[in-house]
Amino acid sequence: MILIIDDDAGVRSSLTLMLKRAGYAVCALCSPSEALEAMRSEAPQLILMDMNFSLSTRGEEGLMLLRQAKVLCPSSPVILITAWGSIALAVEGMRAGAFDFVTKPWNNLALLDSIRTALKLSEDKHADFRRSDYRFDRIIGRSEAISNVLKLVARIAPTNAPALITGENGTGKELIAEAIHANSLRANGPFVKVNLGGLSSSLFESEMFGHRKGAFTDAIADRAGRFEMAAKGTIFLDEIGELELSSQVKLLRVLQDQTYEPLGDSRTRRTDVRVVSATNVDLGQKVADRSFREDLLYRINLIGIHLPPLRERREDIPLLAESFAEKFAAANGLKRPRLAASAMEYLSRLPYPGNIRELKNLVERAMIVSGKIILEAGDFSAQNMGMYAAPASASTRLDAMERASIMQALEKHGWNLSHTAQSLGISRAALYRRMEKYEIRR
């Protein structure tokens, strides 16, 4: 049973009709007191509630009711209904434990999708997980840390819930995004990647929403935006923490309303995409610094997935090293080398500030330079170029490691900045900043 709580009879009637047509049992009530009485007698599958009631327009009653609902029915997800102008109130409700929020006037399809997602995740919370049932072929590792990540991916993949993947550079955030898509009901649709870190505010609308011929000086032809390209599939918003504030507002509107307008076109388009975002920065801190919108954070972070750094899953290092050696040998027509026990022991001890990408590069360099069929610890230590010498402080050590990783990547890619940034998992703008910080010049 879905419990509707709203003091507007028209809203109750509309929601009841929509939900009954979708096959749900419904109980619609008009006041917090009636709702609490109903919750004490039976825990609903889901609660759909307004934040403002007749006694107040500031949301105190709604927030109090939400907190009481989380005590009486802790396993029942709550979806809030509020006006667009009261999104700050909805954000406060999300902090208090709500699953999601929708704004009036709501979109029926979007609201039903949120309800199905909430119910699906609630039902699957204790389901058994068998890795072999899912398409996780590209993800290497058996550690508890990575297994917990894959369990969460398995739970959320069949839903349309927006997910935020966090973790340091090189931990495999894009692979996890691809795994979400590959195991979803949208697997046959497109998977469109967008690096928001390299996208200026002046190009944001054209890149994301498209434009029509003549919309601006250089618009010599119609161009489809990324949301249009991702229709019926998944859009992956990488480095979302680097998005400028002016662009954050525009993105929030699309994620909230599921509509957009291409530049130079007055027709409103409806988007049907699943949104997966990723960042290596602390968005909570950026919210505190007022450089990232809190309402956007809650909109993209319905489900949070944190990827552990490689140093926290050391038991996976031998598997990863073997996999990288095998793939590099196959791709370059080489005989696959064997990694000696001393090599595995050495590799398992390194700090890996560059995470999995750093391990991959180290294995490939050792194979190229040594040319041996059996790789020993010395073959790998020779490639570190002093990266892990112990400097005076932890911050100095990390800076030295990052500078060395950037230098190696630049040399590997012949100082091609686009290729270097891509291999390091950062934007060109972020690479420029690091090169300036470490005084790296050709």
Task: Record the SSE blueprint.
Blueprint: E1 2-5, H1 9-21, E2 26-29, H2 32-41, E3 46-50, H3 60-72, E4 78-83, H4 87-95, E5 100-104, H5 108-123, H6 144-156, E6 163-166, H7 173-182, E7 191-195, H8 201-209, E8 210-211, E9 223-224, H9 226-229, E10 234-238, H10 245-257, E11 259-260, E12 269-270, E13 274-279, H11 283-288, H12 294-300, E14 303-306, H13 317-331, E15 338-339, H14 341-347, H15 355-370, E16 374-375, H16 377-381, H17 394-412, H18 417-424, H19 428-437
Parallel strand pairs: 1-2, 1-3, 3-4, 4-5, 6-13, 6-14, 7-10, 10-13, 15-16
Antiparallel strand pairs: 8-9, 11-12
Helix pairs in contact: 2-3, 10-12, 13-15, 17-18
CATH homologous superfamily classification of the largest domain: P-loop containing nucleotide triphosphate hydrolases
Determine the mean pLDDT.
87
At the first level of CATH, what is the class of the largest domain?
Alpha Beta
Unreliable stretches: 389-394
Approximate helicity band: 40-55%
Whole-angstrom Rg: 25 Å
**Main sheet strand line-up:** 2-1-3-4-5
CATH topology of the largest domain: the name is: Rossmann fold
Describe this structure in words.
The chain is of the alpha/beta class and 442 residues long. It folds into three domains: 124 residues, Response regulator (Rossmann fold, 3-Layer(aba) Sandwich); 178 residues, P-loop containing nucleotide triphosphate hydrolases (Rossmann fold); 127 residues, Helicase, Ruva Protein, domain 3 (Orthogonal Bundle), CATH 1.10.8. The protein contains 19 helices and 16 strands. Strands 2-1-3-4-5 form a five-stranded parallel beta sheet, sandwiched between helices. A five-stranded parallel beta sheet has the order 7-10-13-6-14. α10 packs across α12. The longest helix has 19 residues. It is globular. The N and C termini lie far apart (66 Å).
